[in-house]
Amino acid sequence: MGRVLRFDDTRGYGFIAPAAGGEDVFVHANDFGEARHLVRPGLRVEYECAEGDRGLKVASVRILDDAAVQPTVRVAAPHDRAVDDDGLCDVLAAGDLVGEVTEMLIQHLPSLTGGQIAEIRDRFVGIARKHGWVEG
């Protein structure tokens, strides 16, 4: 089991974060069949995976959430964040940083594997925690 970490319907793929941790798993839009329109970040799924040329990929997937009643979560863009009178911005939640870093890496470096993306974003979160830029 796991949750959809990132899914781009336009590009036709995304990644699932395993519930037990470990390397993210590549998933193609066609793996969801007619339920493709229900896929969104945070969606709980059950899946089987296989080793692909670039890392783990989904062999079969089943949606566990009733996607029709699940709310859509909007991740605020950096320019949406509140600014205090003292000029300091609000601290990001670690999950927000992970989502934004993952989005940036997929958009600008699509040849990275799920494992490489996970390693890079974990290092970003470590740096951000060290400097107090994220909470959680």
TrEMBL record:
Pfam families: CSD. It comes from the Bacteria. Residues 1-63 form the CSD domain. InterPro entries: CSD, CSP_DNA-bd, NA-bd_OB-fold. This is Cold-shock protein.
